[in-house]
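All the exercises in this workshop are built on plain-text protein records. Sequence and backbone structure share a record, each on its own labelled line. The structure tokens are whole numbers drawn from a learned vocabulary of backbone shapes. The record below serves as our worked example for the rest of this section.
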Amino acid sequence: MTVSRQIGETRVEAECEEALKSLAEDVLSTFERLAAQSPLRAGMRVRFGWSMLTLESSPPGGLIVCEPDFERDALRETRPVVNDSLEIAAKQTAFARAVGVTPLDVYFDQYVVLERDALVAHSIRLLRSQASSFDDSGWSISPAEHLEEPREEDLGAIRLYELLRRRRSIFPALILPTDLIVLVNGDRIASVLTPGDRDLLVEL
């Protein structure tokens, strides 16, 4: 569906699934606030949750809100829908609320550290440590049965958005703060634990 709003002299649209309509309205409200400071124009960008939204030209003379093209090159290309950006943001907010913690922002272009074979393992373990740089999400993912410290040659890194195609179900948990362990079985987030004594924080 199309959500649209007249902002000053410009018609701004956002394409999304109907269930995401209220979030799309929030996006338009964000651009409306920006318009009070500077005229809206093609190429204007704003962070929205874990994603980056960009205004692109839309005939005749309007603008459409676009999200990174997560299926192709999310760092350089956009697409004229906002479904993934809004859906993931909503799920992350709900997950942090369910666990009862203050969320810590994560961005689509940050890196995630992967142990070898982590994304093909049925059961995996996620741990968020203190980030070493802005490009670092702090997250590492390993097979759940690997409890020993991994060897350096068994570690790699990918951009966070690449997990959408490979393990989408973990995205709600990526908003959690540092020093929590997330256990995932298949496509289901099973539990969140504290790292020191492994006390169960929540079972899902």
